[in-house]
Amino acid sequence: MELTVLNEEQSPSTEGGCSASACGSSDDQLAHLSDEIKQKVHNHPCYSEDAHHYFARMHVAVAPACNIQCHYCNRKYDCANESRPGVVSELLTPDQAVKKTKAVAANIPQMTVLGIAGPGDPLANLDRTFETFRRLSAEAPDIKLCVSTNGLALPDAVEELAKHNIDHVTITINTVDPEIGAKIYPWIYWNNRRIRGKKAAKILIERQQKGLEMLVERGILVKVNSVMIPGVNDEHLKEVSRIVKQKGAFLHNVMPLIAEAEHGTFYGVMGQRGPSNEELMDLQDACSGDMNMMRHCRQCRADAVGLLGEDRGDEFTIDKIEAMDIDYDAAMKKRAIIHQGIEEELAEKEKRRAALAAVKVPSGPAVDNKHFRPVLMAVATSGGGMINQHFGHATEFLIYEASRDGVRFISHRKVDQYCIGDDSCGEKESALAGSIRALTGCEVVLCSKIGFEPWGLLEEAGIAPNGEHAMEPIEEAVMDVYEEMIKTGKLDEAKSEDSQMTA
Amino acid sequence: MSLSIIESCVNCWACLDVCPSDAIYDAKPHFMIDAKKCTECEGDHADPQCASICPIEGAILDAAGEAVNPAGSLTGIPPEMMEKAMAEIQAR
């Protein structure tokens, strides 16, 4: 099969973000999807920005083997303290995975989704992966199943995936150009040979694209993950985004490269840098257009358990689950009631948001028809869509953009766990300096409370601390603050120098 | 005639699944090859399968004790080119 994805007819690239339908309705990333797809993803924490505050997910690590090498991955995955994809604490047999899934579902009833994401490639571990899916679809039918893959083995697995009623597949597609691919993938294992360089990348790319097309044909939802690697595929990802969207992927998730030397990956050891927050945000904006961009991905471990951004894996080790006695039928009933409650809360939130969208139509006196620049605001939250976290306790901030078009979720930015940025951003920095760095480009930070010292430092950095909206819903508070900035003339001034984005 | 696995193995299971002779087993602290069963894939494949999928340079030795995947063979960067490659990557 010849690769036809490059140099095809291409629509002109949309610079600088939202051009059409997907934008404007607050941060609803799923706005342009068909009702059928919305129904499928509305309670999937990884696909819906709203849902991820309420619903939880888990990964079971039944898939250790891999059929390719990526330069951002280290096959020595046995690590308890790192939070990144491809890392797990203990491998599970399919039987243990089924037990663990039921134990988590019974104890964390908000858990709606079970994924197999590694630590290797799930489709390079077909027997283990499919036995797990087969048993779960029979024994725990109220759990959604999904899988992620590098795509090499995907075309051969599509039939089987369709059989197990897996309606979500994530393919990691970092490039559609073998030249670039050779800089990301040193080799693949294909037809019983190790194949290297451009030839390997070309095969991988063809298989990924073919797999994507086959899944779309069968109505299986496809999300595409891409790792943004500065100087390698950063510009190119705009083209990838366009192509995968054309082919029917419903969501594109551009994630920053994680490459710390201590992780022992090729990129980490060689000193390949990851993107800055601003570079990532700019690329995500450039890739968006009509395409749904995913902006709340937490790049979780291959054995993560709980809400996105949290990991309760320690509560469900093999020892502990073996000791649990789970009555899954009873658990299913309880789960159904809790899910119903969450659905109602989400519907209520959607209603409030619609009301908010109606209010913000420019109609006020002095501000009519005047253009005000959008403002980035950071929010400290421990979940539930509320401003409910102390500034000093935040390990990540959610970044929102307020404009006259509404409030849009942009991304989350981590503070402590690892640092995305240049060499000066290391352990030597205090946690506070790290927090302030994570807020680069923001003009306001909303939190439930904040100490005296950070208050001063934030102001120095041109970021206004704000604790006045504690315990309020995020989007409404962000809009209130924005309106306040307009009223007090803050947006008549140029943005302060300190808070200008730095590359 | 047999390949062997040494302590740099990371127990990733890839080799176990592709061995046509069922010669590889999950052992502690690392996977092992049963020398009585290993055929080096002769008659089955052009290349020994474990060594074709192993992600760790130097982890699999041939019958003479030489690394089947020597340093630089999997990253694609021979040791003498390391410095240059590193400078190139760090300039990105």
TrEMBL record, chain A:
Domain Radical SAM core: 52-290
Cofactor(s), by name: [4Fe-4S] cluster
Biological pathway: Cofactor biosynthesis; Fe-Mo cofactor biosynthesis
Entry keywords, A to Z: 4Fe-4S, Iron, Iron-sulfur, Lyase, Metal-binding, Nitrogen fixation, S-adenosyl-L-methionine
Any Gene Ontology biological process: molybdopterin cofactor biosynthetic process
Free-text function comment from the UniProt entry: Involved in the biosynthesis of the iron-molybdenum cofactor (FeMo-co or M-cluster) found in the dinitrogenase enzyme of the nitrogenase complex in nitrogen-fixing microorganisms. NifB catalyzes the crucial step of radical SAM-dependent carbide insertion that occurs concomitant with the insertion of a 9th sulfur and the rearrangement/coupling of two [4Fe-4S] clusters into a [8Fe-9S-C] cluster, the precursor to the M-cluster.
Family statement drawn from the similarity comment of this UniProt entry: Belongs to the radical SAM superfamily. NifB family.
Name of the protein this chain belongs to: FeMo cofactor biosynthesis protein NifB
The organism of origin for this protein: Marinobacterium lutimaris
Classification of source organism: Bacteria, Pseudomonadati, Pseudomonadota, Gammaproteobacteria, Oceanospirillales
TrEMBL record, chain B:
InterPro entries per record: 4Fe4S_Fe-S-bd (IPR017896), 4Fe4S_Fe_S_CS (IPR017900)
Claim: Iron is one of the keywords in the record: yes
Molecular function (Gene Ontology), one example: metal ion binding
Boundaries of every 4Fe-4S ferredoxin-type domain copy: 1-30
First and last residue of the signal peptide: none
UniProt keywords, alphabetically: Iron, Iron-sulfur, Metal-binding
Protein name listed in UniProt: 4Fe-4S binding domain-containing protein
